[in-house]
Amino acid sequence: MEHHQLAIFFLGLLFPAIVTSVGINYGQIANNLPTPEHVVPLVKQIGATRVKLYDADPKVLKAFANTGVEFIVGLGNEYLSKMTNQANALAWVKQNVQCYLPATKIVSIAVGNEVLTFNDTSLSGCLLPAMQSVHTALVNLKLDNKITVTTAHSVAILQNSYPPSSGTFRPDLKNCISPILDFLSKTCSPFLINAYPFFAYKANPKQVPIEFVLFQPNAGIVDPVSKLHYDNMLFAQIDAVYAALSTLGYSKLPVQISETGWPSKGDDDEVGASTENAKKYNGNLLKIVSQKKGTPARPNNDLNIFVFAMFNENLKPGPTSERNYGLFKPDGTPVYGLGFSGVSVSSGNSTSSGNGNGNGNGNGNGPSVYLSPPANSSSGYLAISSSTERLIWSSWTRLSMGLILMSMGLPYLLG
């Protein structure tokens, strides 16, 4: 207990308290994480007021009761087909959301993750019906005025992203996206996007200036259409999403960055994955969020950003970077210095099951609608370096060319 209190004391002294609007992604694909009770003070002390889960883990939701921290709970891709049935959706909401209210402040349900870029028509066909069923359940329980229903997308849903003012959605996804946008607009729900400038830099390290992706001083770019100046890629990505939404008639739909981050370690071919770059990206990002400024195209809009992720997760598959996005190590100490202490908050007394799906606790207390996931389950959430990464690279190669030509004083023509 003394060590735990000492850690909180140091964190409180050293972390900038002005960061009050940032969110954090709390994934649990690991077998060595601290208990949710130990995570509560960590979340508080880094200034996060919002937490995004990839499931509805009862241990986490109970641990954060009466803390005031807002939660987005998740419904994994593997459950979308079940959630198209309204009875299943109602049962899920009752047993995974309603029973924790009002003590735990659940404000949104994210149905699926990056479904539209999964290239699975059967899966994408279930997305909107599942969202509608969950919303209907909230209406029936008189919770729809307190809890929104949405879904997170990859930036790979964009066909054009440079210049930002010319952002458009992929034509092959328009028939899926438009009804979802209509649903979000009618239910006053936010549009969630997962954005990782790391991938653009990794794909073109010789063309994309590292300063531009790490929020460091640089000449930046000027959008030739809007004449707005951009000094970082994340803002360019966000405004490209706003432009794409406007093109379809949804300019007033609020946008939240449901995931963004930078790995502190990677394989030899993962250029830019380093402790120093992760420190710069997340440190500068937190400073920008604390300034409460919007993007060049939306200067008065709040930056609703969820950093990925709370912890390094040792059981995530894929390249080394997948297991090294965390701000914290499993023992609760920071992976790198962002102004908070390196004093441990726990002794590795983890109860995490590491499966990351369903309720994520493996204790059999989940709802009956959570049957065993299919063999190709996404295990709670997709690997960041999934097949959609190639689409992200392709999209931002256009930005790379723009940076090169603009630095030479040459015009960049849209294709």
TrEMBL record:
UniProt protein name: glucan endo-1,3-beta-D-glucosidase
Give a Pfam family name: Glyco_hydro_17
Give GO terms: molecular function aspect only: glucan endo-1,3-beta-D-glucosidase activity
Which keywords fit this entry according to its UniProt record?
A: Glycosidase, Hydrolase, Signal
Q: Origin organism of this chain?
A: Artemisia annua (Sweet wormwood)
Origin superkingdom: Eukaryota
Q: Where is the composition biased (Gly residues)?
A: 355-365
- Residue ranges, annotated region (Disordered): 347-370
Q: Which Gene3D superfamilies match?
A: Glycosidases
Q: Which GO terms describe its biological process?
A: carbohydrate metabolic process
User: What reaction is this protein's catalytic activity?
Assistant: Hydrolysis of (1->3)-beta-D-glucosidic linkages in (1->3)-beta-D-glucans
What residue stretch is flagged as signal peptide?
1-21
What family name appears in the similarity comment? Belongs to the glycosyl hydrolase 17 family.
Question: What sort of enzyme, by top EC class, is this?
Answer: hydrolase
EC id: 3.2.1.39
**Record's InterPro entries?**
GH (IPR017853), Glyco_hydro_17 (IPR000490), Glyco_hydro_17_plant (IPR044965)
